[in-house]
Amino acid sequence: CRFCESIICERGMKAQLLADQAIGLFSTDDAPQSVQLIGSDYKPTNCNCRIRDTACLTCGNAIGYHITQPCEKCLMAENNG
Description:
Largest sheet: 3 strands, antiparallel
Distance between the termini: 24 Å
Structural class: mainly beta
Shape: globular
Low-confidence stretches: none
Strand content: 35-45%
Helix content: under 10%
Radius of gyration: 13 Å
Number of helices: 1
């Protein structure tokens, strides 16, 4: 976590947001135990996926998001997975 420096996940991989190449992020295929889903699902502007923000369990700051339901367009994309 960039706020409290807690380790969120040991399987994180540096990536870039495809919708905006200027945004760097980390991705994982392992569900981190040190985060919690917060708020309600919402849809991004470029697809019909449902996503929800995540927060660090140590400090409570919002640190990212989780795709709770991918849309068909994203599931069919070459870069998925």
